[in-house]
């Protein structure tokens, strides 16, 4: 039988951290998920701080962060444990060690690691929607019961402490209803200019006011250009501001020249779309014309 999971208790709830600005709604969602002992499912467009939230929670509550990065080929089993049959076969052929001891060939995955820690941890399951459709369902039992069975060793691994589970999704595919029912959900809205300014001041506290104003105005203008495939995100704005400072760009040149635009827009199609928007050109223009005219907007 699995061990009884100890309830996570914090004398003070999550309040955000020095380098992560959190809204009241998001802070409440985090604390509710912790109190109800449910995974926190975070959605939002790229660049809204979904992944950084887990680090902020860990920093704020002084907990270790364990990250399980999900890929298209990731299977739920990998998060529990992996049985290294290849190494065992090698050892049996070359007489290395006691191959009868199967346990030494069992390696816990990220979820398994989070279960056996001596102190509560924050577990980030990052970009769960990258995996196949069955992946979330395959984790339902383990996330509910906080335990899993290893048939090779006839052993049940139970969580000593229930981890704080944060799950991110870019909404590349829909998640199963059964999985959603077990989560606390929060959608991180893209910051408005006022919220964005607070975020920027964390990273660039001494930025010239006029430079910030012109950069912010240009940034939101670019995000509102129709048909942009990859809108510039918060992290790209922070990088762009750094480039403007390092490049010694005058605030008066930002809107006129759009310097270092390649820091913000990462697709040729988006650069061409912006050119057409700025100069009133139609999409029927020659691609070579568009590319050559955009040279002054690149790095």
E-strand count:
9
The total domain count is: 2
Percent in helix = 40-55%
By CATH, the architecture of the largest domain is named: 3-Layer(aba) Sandwich
Structural class, by secondary structure, is alpha/beta
Task: Report the principal-axis shape.
Answer: elongated
CATH 4th-level superfamily of the largest domain: P-loop containing nucleotide triphosphate hydrolases
Helix segment tally:
14
* Highest CATH level, the class of the largest domain: Alpha Beta
Unreliable residue stretches? 6-11, 281-299
Short recap of the structure:
By secondary structure, the chain is of the alpha/beta class. The protein is built from 14 helices and nine strands.
What does this structure look like?
This protein is an alpha/beta fold and 299 residues long. It has 2 domains: 24-187, Rossmann fold (3-Layer(aba) Sandwich), CATH 3.40.50; 193-297. Helices cover 43% and strands 13% of the residues. It contains 14 helices and 9 strands. A 5-stranded parallel β-sheet has the order 2-5-8-1-9, sandwiched between helices. The chain has a two-stranded antiparallel ribbon with strand order 3-4. The protein has a two-stranded antiparallel ribbon with strand order 6-7. Helix 13 (268-279) crosses helix 14. The longest helix is centred in the C-terminal third of the chain and has 15 residues, at 209-223. The model is unreliable at 6-11 and 281-299 (pLDDT under 50).
């Amino acid at each position: 039988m699995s061990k009884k999971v100890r309830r996570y208790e914090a004398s003070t709830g999550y309040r955000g951290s020095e380098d992560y600005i959190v809204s009241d709604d998001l802070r409440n969602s985090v604390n509710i998920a912790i109190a109800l002992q449910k995974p926190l499912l975070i959605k939002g467009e790229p660049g809204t701080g979904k992944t950084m939230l887990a680090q902020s929670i860990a920093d704020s509550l002084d907990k270790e962060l364990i990250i399980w990065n999900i890929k298209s080929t990731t299977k739920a089993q990998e998060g529990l444990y992996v049985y290294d049959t290849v190494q065992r076969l090698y050892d049996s052929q070359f007489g290395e060690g006691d191959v009868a001891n199967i346990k030494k060939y069992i390696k816990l995955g990220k979820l398994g690691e989070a279960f056996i820690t001596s102190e509560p941890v924050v577990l980030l399951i990052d970009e769960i929607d990258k995996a196949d459709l069955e992946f979330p369902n395959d984790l339902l039992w383990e996330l509910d019961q906080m335990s899993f069975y290893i048939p090779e060793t006839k052993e049940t691994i139970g969580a000593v402490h229930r981890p704080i589970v944060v799950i991110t999704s870019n909404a590349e595919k829909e998640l199963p209803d059964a999985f959603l029912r077990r989560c606390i959900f929060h959608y991180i809205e893209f910051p408005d200019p006022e919220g964005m300014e607070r975020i920027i001041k964390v990273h660039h506290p001494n930025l010239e006011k006029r430079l910030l104003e012109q950069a912010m105005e240009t940034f939101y203008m670019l995000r509102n250009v129709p048909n942009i495939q990859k809108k510039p995100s918060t992290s790209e704005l922070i990088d762009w501001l750094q480039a403007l400072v390092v490049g010694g760009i005058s605030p008066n040149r930002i809107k006129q020249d759009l310097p270092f635009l390649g820091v913000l827009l990462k697709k040729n199609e988006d650069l061409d779309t912006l050119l057409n928007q700025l100069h009133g050109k139609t999409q029927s223009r020659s691609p070579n014309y568009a590319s050559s005219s955009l040279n002054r907007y690149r790095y």
